[in-house]
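In this section we walk through a basic example: taking a raw amino acid sequence and producing a predicted 3D structure, encoded as discrete structure tokens. The instruction is simple. Fold the sequence below.
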Amino acid sequence: MTENPKKNRADRRSLFGDILEALVKSFRWIVLVVLVAILCSGIKSVQTGEVAIILRFGKLLGETRAEQIHEPGLLFAFPYIIDEVITVPTGKVFELTVDTHNSADYMSTDIRQNGYIITGDQNIALIGASVKYTIHDPVAYALSTADMDTTLRGVVSGSLATGGVGMSIDELLTTRKDDYAKAVMADAQAHIDALGLGVQISSLELKTVSPPLEVNSIFQAVNSASVQAQTVVAEARQYYEVKIPTAQASANALVAAAQAEYASKVAAANDSLSEFRGLLAEYEANPEVVKTRVYTQKLTQILSTIGTVRLIEPGEDTPHIFMP
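The resulting token sequence is shown next.
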């Protein structure tokens, strides 16, 4: 039985028409879904800790800050092809490591391969810092730069280099490290504000502050000696603070005792002087009576202290009284 060519061609046309019709129907659904997705693309949910701004054809929407910044909640905007919704995490604290001036390896002979700063006394120091910042101006943050971290690294790196100019290497490594960090933070924030980046540095912590590794051991030895010297001075000061008050108290006690003895001696001398003056007045009035009385009193006192009295016989010698 032979096949009919005309019938086969008709069947193929019918199958092709069915497929084309199915594709057309599917394409209509696809277009409809795409249109719905485009229409819904302007609906955004702004989460807690975020705000949003809208760019309409690339231009910021809104005349005032209140109109430009949209708080958390459901946000309705035109489709993406018209409006671009940018969310800004204002409640987040960002942390950035600035290692532009931090070299972990030995210094290269090519200075362009090294990261370091030059201090005020023309020494070299390697610096690494950790910076934390928050967003205080969402509009400026969103529109100022496409890569905020890279921009901030450049700003802080420049401030690290500038801040080291006014300090010696010893101050930077020891006594004025905190002053250096505060100066770098203030200088970096000033440049950030001038550039209008919309961020606020909340802290800047120095992670690495050291000389090049080739001379690091020498600086460590110097620092150890400095610490030891400070320890000795502190111990001496402590000894001074203990010994000086004790010596002062002892000196005060001796002075007080001497003053008391002085007062007692002066009082006794004044009593004796008063007694003598009274006796002198009596003597001037009646010398013989006073002389006899004083002689009798003194003799009585002497005899009261004698244990044995021996008299020499007359003719042997002039009688004397001896006290054994």
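Looking at the output, two observations stand out. Strands lie at 43-46, 51-56, 59-60, 73-76, 83-88, 94-98, 117-118, 124-135, 199-210. The mean pLDDT is 81. In the next section we compare this with other chains.
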